[in-house]
Amino acid sequence: MSPSLLWLSRRSLRHLHAVGALLGWLAYAASPSYRRRLKANAQVAGVGAASRRASVAEAGKLLMELPRLWLRPREQAINDPVSWQHAELVDEALNLGRGLILLTPHMGSFEVAAQAYAERFGARQPVTVLYRPARQPWLRELEETARARPALATAPATLAGVRTLMRALRSGQTLGMLPDQVPPEGMGVWAPFFGQPAYTMTLAARLAQQSGAAVLLIWAERLPRGAGYTVRLQALAEALPDKATLDDTAWMQAAATAINRSMEAVILQKPEQYLWGYHRYKQPRQAEGAAA
How far apart are CA 171 and CA 167, in angstroms? Predict the structure, then answer.
């Protein structure tokens, strides 16, 4: 483990967020392509200049808070205050006993959302989170070891990972997914996202349809001045379509569109904490045994 990462993991959240805000702006200044993409994506969504500028610093904060979240002892709770809004929705969903799928966009601290669920609800039902492995071997190894915690498992976005998700859901457990992540070619459909075609995963909708699992939206708002986080939960903005009334192609298209609209509704609550620099409208990469 890098001594510098260990040192960072012991800094206060306020300190890390201050450094992260500076790094966010340095990355923005250093990359013309990043600047163009961030501005274009935000403008497509109708996000104003003030929120767009704030998102530059928030992206850096996301990066700098990771050592503090990943490298504390496995059994230790999140070091910073976490409050909840509408946590009763999770209780109600778990009481149904059919499993739960939690969807979050690339917004706020999605790492906190997963860890906070595990700490509060993991004794009832653990959570398995789908993730895309990093390309760098050292970072991939860090992800695999640091993210795994009591009542929190991870599954890579591969066919084997999808099988892991299906087994967890069949046993009534909870899944965590980022449905605004671009899936590999053949694993999604093109659906509107803020009015522009975006290649969108169909896995979340398929799992919900096959299992009868409840679906909720979750995101962790990063509070100012390192004051901690608020985990927010809500229902889908638009219900998933009834598969009995559509053929498979039409159903996938309608389901992806419904999920994208729900993501839009969440993002517009706090647009400055969305990763507008994420390459949401890119062409999907060729599938190599992966799934999304």
Answer: 6
Inter-helix orientation angle 88-96/110-121, to 10°: 60
85, β-bridge pairs? 232
Do strands 196-201 and 214-222 pair parallel, antiparallel, or not at all (unpaired)? unpaired
Model-level pTM?
0.93
Q: Are strands 196-201 and 188-193 parallel, antiparallel or unpaired?
A: antiparallel
Containing structural domain, residue 250: 80-270
Q: Is residue 27 part of a domain?
A: no
Q: How many domains does the chain have?
A: 1
**How do residues 161-189 score in pLDDT, each as one tens digit?**
889 999 999 999 999 999 999 988 888 99
Which residues are paired to 131 by β-bridges?
Answer: 156
For residue 158, what are the β-bridge partners? Answer: 290
- The answer to whether position 49 is within a domain reads no
Measure the N-to-C terminal CA separation of the chain; round to a whole number of Å: 31
Report yes or no on 137 lying in a domain.
yes
> pLDDT tens digits for 207-245?
999 999 999 999 999 999 999 999 999 999 999 999 888
The token duo for 117 is 């669920």
Handedness of CA 68, 181, 120, 227 (dihedral sign): positive
Task: Please check whether residue 72 lies inside any domain of the structure.
Answer: no
Count CB-CB contacts under 10 A for residue 12: 12
